[in-house]
Amino acid sequence: MQSMLSRAAQNATTSAIRDLLEHAQRPGMISLAGGLPDPDRFPIDQLAAASERLLRTRGRDVLQYGLTAGNAALRAHIVETTPAADTIDQVVVTTGSQQAQHLIAQVLLDPGDPVIVGDPEYLGALQAFRSREVRLLPAAVDREGIDVDAIEAMIEAGERPKLVYTVPHFHNPSGTTLSNRRRERLLELAARHGFMVVFDDPYRELGEVGSRPAEAAGHPMAVELRSVSKVLAPGLRVGWMIAPRWLCAAVERAKQSADLHTSSLSQAITLGALQSGWYGDHLDDIRAANVAKRYALCHALRDVLGTRLAFDEPAGGMFVWARFTDGTDTTSLLESALGRGVAFVPGAAFAVHSDLRTHLRLSWSTADVASLREAVVRLVG
Amino acid sequence: MQSMLSRAAQNATTSAIRDLLEHAQRPGMISLAGGLPDPDRFPIDQLAAASERLLRTRGRDVLQYGLTAGNAALRAHIVETTPAADTIDQVVVTTGSQQAQHLIAQVLLDPGDPVIVGDPEYLGALQAFRSREVRLLPAAVDREGIDVDAIEAMIEAGERPKLVYTVPHFHNPSGTTLSNRRRERLLELAARHGFMVVFDDPYRELGEVGSRPAEAAGHPMAVELRSVSKVLAPGLRVGWMIAPRWLCAAVERAKQSADLHTSSLSQAITLGALQSGWYGDHLDDIRAANVAKRYALCHALRDVLGTRLAFDEPAGGMFVWARFTDGTDTTSLLESALGRGVAFVPGAAFAVHSDLRTHLRLSWSTADVASLREAVVRLVG
């Protein structure tokens, strides 16, 4: 059980890191810290033309109030393209997938409820769960994703989790992907012990060029969170959840009080993009740029740091998760690295219980290939 | 104190009314039920051109992640044009003003806390407060707005409200405007007894042509909620709160977990509109149409229903709040009126404790002038 002391220490660490990262915006800084997609790959011309056409031809709809559960045509498109949903009442469009996570926590969890997360885990999820004052139970994350043996052991030891949260593809920060075997075992446990599993999946399309991530079938204990933030544009704030009807209905009620509905214009632009002729090529374009940058960063890290840094090269996503083998404390390193003009996120920011002081997360997403090598050189001075 | 029984009865009434109003979408129906702005007055051409130009020239910004508190240039514009805010850290942009209300409730209120609202009151506010499980204390609403004598009497009787909520201009549903005298007394009480006052003000611009609603100075106990939903386009989902720095900081933290930030594109479109040369003319255009429809509805009501219906003609906004003098139950009337092709909202939907079974709210906003008379004829068959 997480003590108040460790929570206070965690908050202090997180806010110290946040303070340091305010410097990441300084001119000349190369930031490997962000989770932002590369703005050079936004389909600006396509979205400019689409938004103008949408407003001129359907302005009365796309500027008006809409349904709380989301644009029915967008939800129908999601049903057509996603085997996990059979009907549109299994889909709720949210103001980014962050909102889905927040509303699910509000609907399913009470303060003190046990929630299993990875350790390390996505900071936004940890913040959302901590603000709900739940009890976080950490499970390790390894090359096959979250450790389902560890989850089973917790249950055998008497824990009764209400929810398990994981990022199944190219996990943030660890970069690993949940194996099918583990996914199935996790859902078996969920059905047997009555907990929901949230698969928060914003990076799924960021694999190799031409790759098609497998779509899972629906499951009564599974919640899929999707987002266009990493593949189209985060500024639209469009995500959605695919979940059993009872949970969609409860989230819809909570969303009505929370913000009535997500921007009608953003939803219409999103639907237009997903149905367009250019979207598939656009995905391959961002995948190609993403792979090139990933190679560049990983190559530079091996080249410059050699055995001082241990990491597995991820198969996609946006992040390298690495560990200094010589005991370098990455929060201290961040202070000096900022002075040399490079930013990253120290591992401690993602820690639930583990000691991740020698870890760090490096994003290749927004820097260009040449800057990535320079960033690595600056990292250790 | 509101008993569980009265709350259950209230929920049953509200959901019965909601079920009935699902029929308001039927073809041929004239709806006086909605709170929607008139889509004929959306500035579609201006927004289409502006959104295309914004995307082409500033796509990298308006499609990217943004600050949780909102676009800094939009907040600076709000500071320049609103005396209640001195610096941008007194402004948080929200996903509609509904979100501001929701986050303020989350930040300031615990279950069981006493909250004073008007009776009748805006249904969305009642739902947001009820979902927070606070204790609602109703104060009457009359021609000068919420009854501040009644609030003072509650305090003298030992109540310690945490928050007072009101719609100061063209109150929904009652149509009345809070007098300056009452506003000042309410804020004096707030300062003396330590509660915040939320002024939810979406209709403020919907007065007479050329009118300029007075802007209040800042006050340490006042929260101003603003929205472009009724004057530009609700589908953008852009509102903002102006409040003391401590409360803005707390709402910003809560918003980070709730949805990270409001659509960057919607915020940029909003700022462009507010700064444009056409916005003032646009406001007068919607005011002129609004006044013409208000006259048409009120005239038809007097002409067709005479003394059967008692109401004060409001000076602006979107709603007539009326009472049948012959004891007609408006929830029953709604059932038969839907059969005759007209929808409205029965008074019971807005009730906290009062018996509002003979009241009804009629919106002139979306029907055209000719249909408004026909709607009144259908109302009573």
Describe what you observe in this structure.
- The structure is a homodimer of 381-residue chains.
- The two termini of chain A are 40 Å apart.
- Chain A is built from twelve helices and 14 strands.
- The radius of gyration of chain A is 21 Å and the shape is globular.
- With 381 residues, chain A is of the alpha/beta class.
- At the A-B interface, α2, α4, α5, α8 and α9 of A face α2, α4, α5, α8 and α9 of B.
Short synopsis of the structure:
Chain A is an alpha/beta fold and 381 residues long. Helices cover 44% and strands 15% of the residues of chain A. In chain A, helix 2 (44-62) crosses helix 9, helix 4 (96-108) packs across helix 8 and helix 6 runs parallel beside helix 7.
Structural class, from helix and strand content of chain A? alpha/beta
Identify the strand order in the major beta sheet of chain A.
2-9-8-7-6-3-4-5
* Overall number of strands of chain A: 14
Q: What is the oligomer described by this structure? A: homodimer
Mean pLDDT of chain A: 94
Q: Could you tell me how far the N terminus lies from the C terminus of chain A, measured between alpha carbons in angstroms? A: 40 Å
Helix content of chain A: 40-55%
How large is the count of helical segments of chain A? 12
* CATH homologous superfamily designation of the largest domain in chain A: Type I PLP-dependent aspartate aminotransferase-like (Major domain)
How much beta of chain A, percentage-wise?
15-25%
Main sheet attributes: strand count, strand direction, barrel closure of chain A = 8 strands, mixed
Q: Using the CA coordinates, give the radius of gyration of chain A.
A: 21 Å
| CATH class descriptor name of the largest domain in chain A | Alpha Beta
So, CATH architecture of the largest domain in chain A?
3-Layer(aba) Sandwich
Task: Please give the domain count of chain A.
Answer: 2
Low-pLDDT stretches of chain A:
1-5
The shape of chain A is globular
